[in-house]
Specification:
Number of helices: 7
Order of helices and strands: HHHHHEEHH
Helix content: over 70%
Number of domains: 1
Largest sheet: 2 strands, antiparallel
Radius of gyration: 20 Å
Length: 158
């Protein structure tokens, strides 16, 4: 066996191990990480004035009373977070997540001056905060694809 073949075999062995490890653990890490984000952001909204998103929520939803809406939204997000962290009631948890997500995009339409510096590509910090939710939606979709027992596999033949 040549030195190049030995290096390739070593690299291939490591690559197989890493991809198998990622396939075995990625969804759990995504689920718990997503759960922490929802729990944390929701918990911040429970305490008036603590969440940096509170004013954005108030300005986006002037048609509802923030005295009850923000606490309900906070509890909603905490429940999503707990469901994701524990992995319990995933269908219900993901339903809550997907029902909540359109509301997070609402400022893009309702408050364009707050989210865009230059439409359609220049985003303010608030706009970036909203656009990052695309990753949350994608993560939710990946998790939703497994509620019937599906899993990731590192083996393309499987």
């Amino acid at each position: 066996m040549t030195a190049n073949q030995k290096i390739y075999n070593w690299y291939n062995t490591i690559d197989i191990w890493l991809t198998q490890w990622m396939a075995a653990h990625a969804l759990t890490i995504v689920r718990i990480g997503l759960g922490i984000i929802f729990f944390w952001f929701g918990a911040l909204k429970i305490v008036p004035g603590l969440s940096p998103a509170e004013e954005l929520v108030r300005n986006t939803t002037p048609f509802v009373n923030p005295a009850w809406f923000i606490p309900v939204l906070a509890i909603w997000e905490v429940v999503i977070g707990l469901g994701l962290i524990t992995g319990k009631f995933m269908r219900f948890t993901l339903l809550l997540l997907f029902l909540q997500m359109p509301g997070t995009a609402l400022p893009l339409l309702v408050l364009p001056n707050v989210v865009w510096t230059q439409f359609p590509y220049g985003l303010t910090l608030e706009g970036q905060y909203i656009i990052k939710n695309l990753v949350l939606v994608g993560s939710g979709l990946a998790l939703g694809a497994t509620v019937r027992g599906g899993r990731l596999t590192a083996d393309p033949e499987a």
